[in-house]
Design brief:
This protein is an alpha/beta fold. It has one domain: Rossmann fold, CATH 3.40.50.720. The protein contains 9 helices and 7 strands, in the order E-H-E-H-E-H-E-H-E-H-H-E-H-H-H-E. The protein has helices at residues 18-29, 41-53, 68-82, 105-133, 144-147, 153-172, 191-198, 203-212, 223-234, and strands at residues 9-13, 33-38, 59-62, 87-90, 136-142, 179-185, 245-247. It has a 7-stranded parallel sheet, sandwiched between helices. Helix 1 (18-29) crosses helix 9, helix 3 (68-82) packs parallel to helix 4 and helix 4 (105-133) packs parallel to helix 6 (153-172). The longest helix has 29 residues, at 105-133. The chain starts with 8 loop residues before the first strand and ends in a 15-residue tail after the last strand. The chain binds nicotinamide-adenine-dinucleotide (NAD). Nicotinamide-adenine-dinucleotide binds next to helix 1, strand 5 and helix 7.
Length: 262
């Protein structure tokens, strides 16, 4: 299937590592031009250089997305360099363990900025360009909005917000023909996941326990599997799909737990 993404300018927040990296790679393979917005200059540059060396196109803007002014400046810089924006993938975020019992106001608000506020700001500032291009939006979100996790109130609330904004924007942007969809991730092996599992007391056993509970194949989702679904939702091949929350999770959230591959 030709996704017809060639030469499309697509912003991928957090596009240098993990799920975002997978998305940048797949978009570049499809001939699109992923524009990574991420906080680590070296990571951004390393992936963009690698893609360019392989004959693909890509670029980056280094920005800390929890800073609202940096979000605006990053979008402006993309528009200045490329003249248009054809798609947005909101992806950057961090499961940062700001809980109810042991959290506090400052921690909660800071986490909303790390995980939710920039989803709004990147799209808000890109909207004039997206209206012109009839671009598409994909929000990456987490199962925690639906299942909870415990001790991560702000992250779960942010993901509830990401899901709600997916529906809300799908409605508000109908008049422009802009489609908005979300991809809900459950267990995907990324640098962030690796760091998190290492904080547990028996990481290897815990990992085995989690993967055994993933119905399809008893394995984790790969970032490329998330990326392939993202590319489809950005493309005209999904031209009548909007306001959807697609669980790319091997059945983790919805299928019967009695199916566990223990
Ligand atoms: N890995 C999983 O299992 C999983 C599950 C559910 C949801 N998610 C969601 O997927 C998204 C990506 O997660 P991941 O596991 O790939 O993470 P990751 O930490 O492995 O990669 C995230 C990338 O985004 C960048 N980034 C993060 N916050 C940023 C900020 N405020 N400003 C600029 N750059 C920033 C990081 O530097 C990194 O390059 C997150 O929003 C997370 O909520 C992941």
């Amino acid at each position: 299937m030709d996704l017809q993404l060639s030469e499309k300018i697509i912003i991928v927040t957090g596009g240098a590592k993990g799920i975002g990296e997978g998305i940048s790679r797949i978009l570049a393979e499809e001939g699109a031009i992923p524009i990574i917005i991420g906080r680590h200059e070296e990571d951004n540059r390393a992936l963009v250089d690698e893609l360019i060396k392989a004959g693909k196109k890509a670029d980056y803007v280094t920005a800390e997305l929890s800073d609202p002014e940096a979000c605006e400046a990053a979008v402006k810089s993309v528009v200045r360099c490329f003249g248009h924006i054809d798609g947005i993938v909101n992806n950057a975020g961090q499961n940062d363990g700001v809980g109810l019992e042991h959290g506090n106001y400052d921690g909660f608000m800071a986490s909303l900025h790390r995980n939710l506020v920039h989803y709004y700001l990147i799209v808000h500032h890109s909207l004039p360009a997206l209206i012109k291009s009839k671009g598409a939006i994909v929000n990456i979100t987490s199962k925690t909005a639906e299942t909870g996790q415990g001790n991560t109130s702000a992250y779960a609330a942010s993901n509830g917000g990401r899901n709600a904004l997916t529906r809300e924007w799908a409605v508000e942007l109908l008049k422009y023909g802009i489609r908005v969809n979300g991809i809900v991730v459950a267990e995907c092996w990324t640098p962030q996941y690796e760091k998190w599992i290492a904080t547990l007391s028996a990481p290897e056993e815990k990992l085995k326990e989690i993967t055994a509970r993933i119905p399809l194949g008893g394995r984790m989702t790969t970032s490329l599997e998330i990326a392939n679904a993202t590319a489809f939702l950005l493309s005209e091949k999904s031209s009548h799909t909007t306001g959807q929350l697609l669980h790319v999770d091997g059945g983790y959230v919805h299928l019967d737990r009695a199916l566990a591959n223990a």
